[in-house]
Amino acid sequence: MIGMHQLKTMYGTSLINDPAQIADPETYLWFKTKDGTVFGIKRARLSESEQKLLHFCFASFSPDALNQTKKQRFWADLLFNNLHPEKCPLTRAYLLYIQLAQFSDRHRNLESAFHSYFDRIYLTTLWKNSKQGIILLKSAPEEPLDELINLISSDFYCNLHLLCMPVDDLSTVHTTYKKNFALFNKSCLLFPERHVVASAHLLAVLAAEALHEQKNSTITQQVKRLRDVPPELLHSVTSYFQHNFNLSKAADELFLHRNTLTYRLDRVYQLTGLDPKHFEDAVILSLLIDLYRYDQWKRSENPD
Amino acid sequence: MATIVLDHIKKRYANSDALTVKDFNLSIKDKEFIVLVGPSGCGKSTTLRMIAGLEEISEGGLYINDKKVNDTAPKNRDIAMVFQNYALYPHMTVYGNMAFGLKIRKLKKSDIDKRVREAAQVLGLEEYLNRKPKALSGGQRQRVALGRAMVRNPQVFLMDEPLSNLDAKLRVQMRAEIAKLQRRLQVTTIYVTHDQTEAMTMADRIVIMKDGEIQQIGTPEDVYKNPTNMFVGGFIGAPPMNFLPAAISEQGALISDHLVPLSQDTLSKLSDYKGKSVIAGIRPEDIVSVKEAVEDAFPATVDVAELLGSESLIYTRIGETSIIIKTTAEHVRSGEQISLALKPDKLRFFDAETEKRIL
Ligand SMILES: Nc1ncnc2c1ncn2[C@@H]1O[C@H](COP(=O)(O)OP(=O)(O)OP(=O)(O)O)[C@@H](O)[C@H]1O
Ligand SMILES: [Mg+2]
User: Fold this and answer.
1) Fold that domain A208-301 belongs to in CATH
2) What's the predicted TM-score (pTM) here?
3) Which one of A41, A142, B81, B103 has the lowest number of neighbouring Cβ atoms within 10 Å?
4) Do B89 and A151 touch (CB under 8 A)?
5) pLDDT of residue B1
6) How much is the mean pLDDT over chain A?
């Protein structure tokens, strides 16, 4: 049997014993010996057959203490560590990426709330760290997710954001989860009021990033033009869209006269060349407003 | 027992450089029912969420029972929240839903049971404890949501538009129930709505907000009768206050070439505005209308008249300005000629530029 001493001489500084020691424990492969010693070896140092051999000799370990149950470790290995079990019980799944703010309760409690909410379709919750994780569901949730947000806020006094991601092939998820977390993270920063994000809605963030590289494209020019639109006009348009083009409802909530709102929408048309009341223009305008928020965010990060 | 003080509270969200809540000052008494009201986007929810601890306070102090709680973890603030969507765990029974928050706080089973049953009794939910939310009506679900907050015996209730997803009839009924419940439980409550009728019927005191700023704080009667500015006059009351351009002369207010005589006392208070234009405000029920022609009254033509049971609304004009009158007098028809008089003691005056009330 291989001992810790031998491993150390083989892998040197590529082997460490404390996951908390390093910033990115995901770049290591983690194991636990029979006597409970935890160790990790840099993935880059391991060939495929070495990995197989190590798995044969040692139990795998999830460096994140939040993933405690067997089920959590199984799925964490698959999703985060790309360790494929011989038999995967599922190929398709529905993932809810979660991002927490102001959370100061026990993660177990939160898991039990998720379990209660989704009931039969709930598989488990995997924690990437204490703020981010993934709820694994067997199928798409039937219950409205904004109710879950409210439940969690009232039971745990914390802010929760969700990204919904249907997955057709679980075996490839690990290649995308990091990118998804990064995009989701940005979406939460840019649109904090959107608590539930559908994967398709990441389009705005993706487009914004792609466009940000091209400084002088026509679209960038269009986005810049929104800087001249007074914020209350943008708020009015957004509210009008949120009320699904219902002028009376939007006017009512904004406490504006219908005519005033119509006037404001017309002003937006004049200023942008896009008519909020016209479906095709509205789609573009809505996307441009999202891009504009990215533009504002970038500008606030590096004001030049 | 809880008093709450918001002392120069400000909120700046990370993604914006403007203040979403600007210098919010409010002192809430124990057992008080406070309603925050204002148009969409004015910062009501943001304010409420800062009190709950769901959002950080950018500047200023928040005190509960004289203790500063800015840095107290939300779960230790002894607050319970109720939201717009009566959020419930769909697969748990009513009992389970109410008990959940206590279970995760590791309360004894017997204590949980006692609290759940007590709340169920107060809310009239005893028969439904074993049902799942799907088998309940909208009103019952909303009551369970209230029950979930009640069982915690919090010092403060925070409610963010809890009725906005209910239909109009149920809303009116639940409005009364929540107000009654709050009086019974005597828990300090802050309630957010954008519906001024809700605010008027439920509140001990109303806080009217616009663009992140408090416009006025007062009892429903006070803000109705004495709005501090034209925004409040227009926002509170349905139909809203009527506004008419006016000029102050030696004898009274000149409105659309008519002199409305004012008392010496009133005139002396308006002396700075003599010869200047102001805006006169008057509530729809403070305009008297009669069918016959009356000397010195404003002649007007009925544009539209709506009969609402014992009262009717008359849409007409004084000069160029559209106004609405609420009256119990004999019903009139559109096109009819009427005479109007403004009750002089009910007239309010606003600065035409600042829109603030002068008198
Ligand atoms: N998490 C957030 N991050 C950034 N901005 C936010 C956030 N939440 C709200 N806002 C913005 O702050 C302003 C005030 O929002 P808030 O939700 O407090 O208004 P409200 O008075 O509750 O309106 P409504 O009646 O629409 O609920 C709005 O312009 C809104 O877009
Ligand atoms: Mg709100």
Assistant:
1) Arc Repressor Mutant, subunit A (1.10.10)
2) 0.86
3) A142
4) yes
5) 77
6) 88
pLDDT in tens, B334-349: 999 999 999 999 999 9
CATH fold of the domain at A68-197? Alpha-Beta Plaits (3.30.70)
Residue ranges in chain A modelled with pLDDT below 50: none
**Domain spanning B4-235: CATH superfamily:** P-loop containing nucleotide triphosphate hydrolases (3.40.50.300)
Distance separating alpha carbons of residues A48 and B190, to the nearest angstrom: 61
Length of chain A in terms of residues written: 304
Domain ranges (residues) in chain B? 4-235, 242-351
Which residues 170-229 of chain A have a CB within 8 Å of chain B? Answer: 189-190, 192
- Kindly give, in sequence order, each residue whose CB lies less than 8 Å from that of residue B337, ignoring residues fewer than 6 positions away: B291, B293, B299, B300, B301, B302
- What interface predicted TM-score (ipTM) does this complex get? 0.85
Answer yes or no: same fold for B4-235 and B242-351.
no
The residue-averaged pLDDT of B324-338 equals: 91
Please, where in chain A does CATH 1.10.10.2840 lie?
208-301
CB distance B17 to ligand 1 below 6 Å: no
Determine which residue's CA is closest to atom 25 belonging to ligand 1.
B40
Q: Does B167 touch chain A (CB under 8 A)?
A: no
Residues 6+ apart with CB under 8 A from A274: A268, A281, A282, A284, A285, A288
Answer yes or no: do B90 and A119 touch at CB < 8 A.
yes
Are B152 and B140 spatial neighbours (Cβ–Cβ below 8 Å)?
Answer: no
3-state secondary structure of B271: helix
> Which pLDDT value is given to residue A303?
67
Asked if B54 and B83 count as a contact pair (C-beta separation under 8 A), the reply is no
- Is B80 an 8 Å CB contact of chain A? yes
The whole-angstrom separation of Cα A61 and Cα A74 is: 10
In this prediction, residues B321-327 reach a mean pLDDT of: 95
